[in-house]
Amino acid sequence: MDAIYEKIDQGIRIDSREALDVFVHGDFLMLGHLAGRIRQKKHPEKVVTFVIDRNINYTDICVSECRFCAFYCKAGSGNGYVITRDDLKKKIEETLELGGTQILLQGGMNPDLDLDFYLGMLRYIKDNFPIHIHGFSPTEIHYIAQRCGLPLEELIKTLMDAGLGSIPGGGAEILVDEVRQTVSPNKCSAGTWLEVMRTAHTLGLRTTATMMFGHLEKPGHIIEHLQRIRDLQDETQGFTAFIPWTFQPGNTGISLMPKTGVEYLRVLALSRIFLDNVDNVQASWVTQGDKIAQTALAFGANDLGSTMIEENVVAAAGVDYMLPKEELIRLIQTAGYIPRQRDCFYATVREY
What we know:
Blueprint: H1 2-9, H2 16-25, H3 28-42, E1 47-51, E2 53-57, E3 61-62, E4 73-74, H4 85-97, E5 102-106, H5 115-128, E6 132-135, H6 138-148, H7 152-162, H8 177-183, H9 190-202, E7 207-213, H10 219-236, E8 239-246, H11 261-274, E9 280-281, H12 285-288, H13 290-296, E10 303-306, H14 325-334, E11 338-342, E12 348-351
Parallel strand pairs: 1-10, 1-11, 2-5, 3-4, 5-6, 7-8, 8-9
Antiparallel strand pairs: 11-12
């Protein structure tokens, strides 16, 4: 173990076998220490970033029926919604009034929506509001491509022409098909998720990457997920950030105890150590709360994500941590860092 610690401390890339060894057997505080040192080398300024944005879920109707999701409504049930232009307008206007610079636009795999719906929504936003659209996870893009019969590259180009500015890393869950077939059997494969991201990166579209853990995966699956992200980043350099977060079991089809703060921090630290080619690692205060989020800044995270003016998916699982901008700033300052508002591409908007 000491030999692996030494490699990490010297900035030498570890392989998946070493990563699994240190993840399972490594000392918790040593992992945090090493991840903190890497974070300091990558970001020598004592700055922690955040973005002001809003999650807008344009529909909750979904055919995926993921076992971990408490938000969706079954297609054909007569329940659920599709956002109206009026509601969309109000949500974006409020976001701009609160200093927001982007919206996170995601929704269910709704069989009643065609390509014109998505393009019309994008064009309406771009024609009427000065705001960045971070939208449509790879699972949504794959689903839309299947529905409208377009190749991935052509669809993504069409979405970009209509106003799409970047792609969030949702729908990754665990990028191992053995796990995906159990928790989300109707979603695209791990290989397809990665191919959507590869195609987007090739077209010049930046994206984030995520990992939802703490459900039915094993330690080896977490390492495999990180390896796939690192390999694609080596190839394309298209990921701006990595965001690991814990599964929230409330109101879902998977009954188990949620991961503890210590278990979350161990995965976060490993992510910072293993993903040596990803600049930014984001702490998930939405699932962990403010104190663990502060601690995460000493375990490799350099970003606190979004102020989350609105969040529905995690809230549907019974987790409702919400932090206004002023509280995020206070958390960063009391942890000993300088708060900096950023945009989607980590350019500075304002320093506090």
